[in-house]
Specification:
The protein has about 290 residues and is an alpha+beta fold. The protein is built from ten helices and eleven strands. Strand 8 and strand 9 form a beta hairpin. The longest helix has 16 residues.
């Protein structure tokens, strides 16, 4: 049966601010986001038997209606008048769970891209974003990728110049945190420090990696308040990172390095001190078909 292979990159937040909350519970955000080469791979296949089947290399990932890839397949087939079709999606999982790196959203974006190609629909990433937003606020960004200023609830984008080539070291503590719990904690406080998003945009536009690192702020760090996060941030800085930050709602921490040797040395030092360690780079694209 016809099969499509899709790369679904993870994301990091170079800055993250929350401006308010809508009546439906969604939050108004203002953040600068970046896709990275660390990615999941999806194998999307048309099947003879009707229905949707999702499998995953990680047994901890639910493969029923709780899975965003499953829901993305449902939404796409319904929107395109293909509800009677059969499809399978296999996820080769590399993006860590409960990390703030949009792993589930990346898989949803990858599913939409794969089905779009599989059934020859010819939808652009921008056109797929409408379906993507119905699945989650991070899905549209995972479709577009690159370096973006994201506003609204995550559906308004301004493309930014590419982040300078660098090494991005990601370390995920064993402990995770659910997105809804982080938002609930944030709603109960007034943050003591918020990012200057305009300054971050200017830093990205300047192409100065040190300036970008100097503007990195994530309001969720204050409510996550996990010693593991701050240990990883400090370790990265001590090994030469230009800056380090927790991404999204956590708990993964990343550091920006302009020196590969220092990045590798830091990665070796963190093995055994974190649940997972990845050395990656900026990716200028979102989810896309491979080959």
């Amino acid at each position: 049966m016809p099969t499509v292979r899709v790369k679904a990159p993870a994301k990091i937040n170079l800055s993250l601010d929350i401006l308010g909350k809508r009546h439906d519970g969604y939050h108004f955000m203002k953040m600068v986001m970046q896709t990275v080469e660390l990615s999941d791979t999806l194998i999307v296949t048309e099947e003879k038997a009707p229905g949707i089947r999702v499998t995953c290399s990680d047994s901890r990932v639910p493969c029923d209606g709780r899975n965003l890839a499953f829901r993305a397949a449902e939404a796409f087939l319904k929107a395109e008048g293909l509800a009677g079709k059969g499809v399978s999606v296999h996820i080769q999982k590399r993006i860590p769970m409960e990390a703030g790196m949009a792993g589930g959203s990346a898989d949803a974006a990858g599913t939409l891209v794969g089905l779009n190609r599989l059934f020859g629909r010819g939808r652009t990433p921008e056109q797929l974003c409408e379906t993507g937003l119905s699945l989650g606020a991070d899905v549209p960004f995972c479709l577009l990728g690159g370096t973006q200023l994201s506003e609204g609830i995550g559906e308004i984008f301004t493309p930014l110049p590419s982040l300078p080539d660098c090494r991005i070291l990601v370390a995920k503590p064993e402990i995770g945190i659910k997105t809804r719990d982080s938002f609930a904690k944030f709603d109960a406080i007034v943050p003591s420090r918020v990012p200057d998003t305009d300054a971050m945009v200017a830093a990205v536009a300047s192409g100065n990696l040190s300036a970008v690192a100097g503007e990195m702020v994530n309001v969720f760090e204050e409510v996550t308040d996990l010693p593991e996060v701050f240990m990883l941030k400090e370790a990265m800085r001590s090994y030469g990172a230009l800056g380090s930050l927790m991404t999204g709602t956590g708990t993964a921490v990343f550091g920006l390095f302009d020196d590969l040797r220092l990045a590798r040395r830091c990665a070796r030092a963190l093995y055994g001190k974190a649940g997972a360690v990845f050395l990656t780079r900026p990716d200028p694209l979102g989810a896309r078909v491979e080959g």
